[in-house]
Write a structure and sequence with these properties.
mainly alpha, globular, about 80 residues
Length: about 80
């Protein structure tokens, strides 16, 4: 089986902004939003891989699909 992964291009500024944001030791959650198909998930998976390469690079990521009922329930409970 051949494994193919598309190149990660044209998102370097966003990737660097995410890394800088996390290196500033902010404890607030970071929300990523945008239209369907704009590569939000790909950007975050690339970020997680890059951030783990840094010293003490610990990442906690939670994916919530805002269209799912369970996501709405979680958001309501967090308020």
């Amino acid at each position: 089986m051949v494994s193919w992964k598309p190149y990660f291009v044209d998102r370097i500024p966003e990737l660097n902004a995410l890394i800088d944001w996390c290196l500033s030791f902010r404890v607030l959650p970071l929300y990523i939003y945008g239209p369907e198909g704009c590569s939000k998930t790909r950007l975050l998976s690339e970020f997680i891989n890059k951030f783990r390469e840094l010293p003490n690079g610990k990442v906690i990521s939670v994916y919530i699909d805002a269209l799912e009922d369970i996501a709405r329930d979680v958001i309501e409970k967090l308020k």
